[in-house]
Structure formats: structure tokens, C-alpha cells
């Protein structure tokens, strides 16, 4: 009997995680050209949703692309529970994480841990393009 209770207690976090994301769409394989991704414009900035859902293991994953106009930010510095990986493909940006700012050029990456205050600003004279991979709780 003791062994059964232990197994049940170990399984509870998985059960609650599955229930929390039960309404989220399970990700399916796809291949879509960049110009067919849905576009969202915010002033001179553009973003494209790439994917948003739950992996086969029940983990949440969201990916989007952003093109920032020179001197602009997508939004003010903020924090959230999920973690983010930024992959810069074009331009120059300043990434600030918990008050520390780092200049990044094309090919660079930044990772933001859960609940750390962060922001991105295009510090170049040309549009900057980056991809964000959000992992963890829904964005």
C-alpha cells in the first residue's frame, strides 16, 4: 500500500501539468514559408506567430519572429513566468536582463530565466530581426 501512495504522489505534478494545458493545442509537424506566417503590426514593428502549443511531453512551447524598427522596442521591460531564448538574425539590439545591458549583433543569442526583468531595443540604423522561443508556462 505504501508503494502505491508514493507512486501516486510522484505522478500528481504530471497530472496537474496535463490538466493545466488540456485546453492548449498539441503541436503538429508543419513547414510554412516565412511570407505565409500571420503578421501582426504594431507601429513600425512587425511580428509573426510561428507556433504556440504543447509538445508531446506536455511542455508548453511558443515561437515568434519580431522585426524592430531602428530605435524601437517591442514593449517596455517586463517579466513573466516562462523562459525565453532570443536568436538575433539581423541587425543590432541591446538586451537588458535584470539591469545589465549587452549589445548583440546578428548570430547572437540571449536567454532570459523565469521572472527576470528584460527588454530589447534596436540600437542600429537598420531593422533588427530576432526569433523568440518561449518555454514553460503559457505566454
Automatic annotation (TrEMBL):
Keywords assigned: Metal-binding, Signal
Domain Cupin type-2: 66-133
Annotated signal sequence range: 1-22
Gene Ontology molecular functions: metal ion binding
Residue intervals passing through the bilayer: none
Superkingdom per UniProt: Bacteria
InterPro entries per the UniProt record, alphabetical: Cupin_2, GPI/OXD, RmlC-like_jellyroll, RmlC_Cupin_sf
Keyword Signal found: yes
Protein name per the record: Cupin domain-containing protein
Species of provenance: Paracidobacterium acidisoli
Record lineage: Bacteria, Pseudomonadati, Acidobacteriota, Terriglobia, Terriglobales
Amino acid at each position: 500500500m505504501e508503494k502505491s501512495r508514493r507512486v501516486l504522489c510522484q505522478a500528481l505534478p504530471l497530472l496537474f501539468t496535463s490538466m493545466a494545458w488540456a485546453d492548449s493545442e498539441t503541436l503538429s509537424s508543419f513547414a510554412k514559408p516565412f511570407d505565409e506566417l500571420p503578421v501582426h503590426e504594431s507601429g513600425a514593428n512587425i511580428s509573426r506567430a510561428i507556433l504556440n502549443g504543447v509538445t508531446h511531453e506536455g511542455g508548453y512551447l511558443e515561437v515568434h519572429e519580431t522585426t524592430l524598427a531602428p530605435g524601437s522596442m517591442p514593449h517596455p521591460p517586463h517579466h513573466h513566468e516562462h523562459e525565453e531564448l532570443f536568436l538575433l538574425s539581423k541587425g543590432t539590439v541591446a538586451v537588458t536582463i535584470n539591469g545589465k545591458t549587452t549589445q548583440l549583433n546578428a548570430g547572437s543569442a540571449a536567454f532570459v530565466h523565469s521572472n527576470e526583468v528584460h527588454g530589447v531595443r534596436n540600437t542600429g540604423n537598420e531593422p533588427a530581426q530576432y526569433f523568440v522561443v518561449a518555454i514553460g508556462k503559457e505566454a
